[in-house]
Amino acid sequence: MKKLLSLLFLLFLSVSLFFPTFAFPDTRGIKDIRVTSKQGQSLYFYTDYHALVVGVSNYEIWPKLPYAVKDAKEVAAKLKELGFKVRLVIDPTSQEMRTALNEMVYKMGLEVNRGLLFYYAGHGETETLADNTKMGYIIPKDSPLLKKDPIGFAAQAISMREIESISLRIKSKHVLMLFDSCFSGSLFGLVRAVPDDITEKSAFPVRQYITAGREDEQVPDKSMFKRSFLIGLEGDADLTGDGYITGTELGMYLSDKVVNYTQGRQHPQYGKINNPDLDRGDFIFVPKKKYEASLKVTEGAVAAEAGFPSIGTKYTLRIATENRTYTRTFTVVDDGIFENKQVHRRLIEGKDKINLYDKVSKNWVGQIMGGEVVRRAKPHEDLFRFPLYVGKKYESKYVFSEKDRTKNIIRSIEVKSFGKVTVPAGTLEAFKIIVKRKGVETIFWYSPKLKIFVKKWEKHRRKGESTIELIEYSAL
């Protein structure tokens, strides 16, 4: 029987949790994962899928768990079938586990647009602290028992406090963790959600957790949790019938099935992190056949997520109209607040003007000069509606105001292509975006690498043609 892993998630549910690996070959995974919603909207989710699967059977001191490694290998094989790039850790020592954790942070976890999954099968331990709170531990194969050798245990076992520090460094936006062990599940109910249709909101960052049972339950070595998980990934866990499986659907499915199959002896717990910045999205499994079919529809398409240049970035644009040519240099200065919105600020050098960009939509919302608002867009300019991908079309509406002048702007926008464009600053890959409104036609070339447009051509019915090009760019 596996020893229960009892954790007080009130202390640690503000972080994500992952276990990296070593010495096992990766598999080739699928790329550029998109989902088609029930409304027919094509949504970009991930650059790729990665998974870390850990199984510990051959403990040196703790009771051996004959099925843990076997279960881990079966889970890894299933995830490979679904297009995950899988890394597998088998019977790690304490040092190997710590090394693997650091590799997770600085290799797998640096890619923001990635779906990361972690699956753990092995022993856990819980220590009661002086204030009666509880500290959970992951147990490597060479750890001594807490009761018999507490000093050795503290040196070898890996605490949730250590995991907290490591987890905060992971940048990947979607993280789903499954534990074939038992946790204190009381907090999962506070942020538990019901399955819902996939929308743009689903792409927001999220940390999700599923455990095999409650802290007062024993999880058998021959795992019903694992069996149900594998069956669910075949499609049974698609509770909304849209062809995809979300982390929320998977949690609800396992909660129902494992309780039934174990005749009420085991109650899986699931939920999202209790953090407003990391609980809005939902992990998405895209079946491989559906992914391959989507490639035929979006062949050649590339996707880009929203983002800003880093603070300290400086770039110069050359503006050429029919009457004159001049330059403008912009510097990313800091973040701030504008009309109760969090904004990203860029200084126009020599003009005492600052352009403001909404941190949620990543679009321009206004300009201030000498502390006064001189231009604004409500709710925002709505030019780049992220994620961008070839073939995306949308209508943009906003209200532009400058001094005493106000105008309603309506534009049709299409992401036409993705390829190389040459500007004085160099040759870059960029989206070509066609923007049309009454009397004006504009083409933007947006660089997902630099996170700015690097070229703009415009033909205005009254003002004629103009061109803007990037001539210099430097980032700290």
Summarize the structure.
This protein is an alpha+beta fold and 476 residues long.
Describe the structure.
The strands form 5 sheets. Strands 14-15-16-17-18-19-21-22-23-24-25-26 form a 12-stranded antiparallel β-barrel. Helix 6 (224-236) crosses helix 7. With 476 residues, it is α+β, with helices and mostly antiparallel strands. 18% of the residues lie in helices and 41% in strands. It contains 8 helices and 26 strands. The protein has 2 domains: 9-297, Rossmann fold, CATH 3.40.50; 304-474, YmcC-like fold (Beta Barrel), CATH 2.40.360.
Q: Count the strands?
A: 26
Overall shape: elongated
Contiguous low-pLDDT stretches (5 residues minimum) are 6-27, 184-190, 295-301
- Spatial strand arrangement across the major sheet: 14-15-16-17-18-19-21-22-23-24-25-26
Chain-wise SSE layout:
Blueprint: H1 9-12, E1 31-36, E2 42-55, H2 68-81, E3 85-90, H3 94-106, E4 114-121, E5 124-128, E6 134-138, H4 150-156, E7 158-159, H5 160-167, E8 174-183, E9 206-214, H6 224-236, E10 245-246, H7 247-261, E11 269-272, E12 284-285, H8 288-297, E13 303-304, E14 314-320, E15 325-338, E16 341-348, E17 353-358, E18 364-369, E19 372-378, E20 388-389, E21 393-402, E22 405-423, E23 426-437, E24 440-447, E25 452-460, E26 464-474
Parallel strand pairs: 2-3, 2-4, 4-8, 8-9
Antiparallel strand pairs: 1-2, 5-6, 6-7, 9-11, 10-12, 13-20, 14-15, 14-26, 15-16, 16-17, 17-18, 18-19, 19-21, 21-22, 22-23, 23-24, 24-25, 25-26
Helix pairs in contact: 6-7
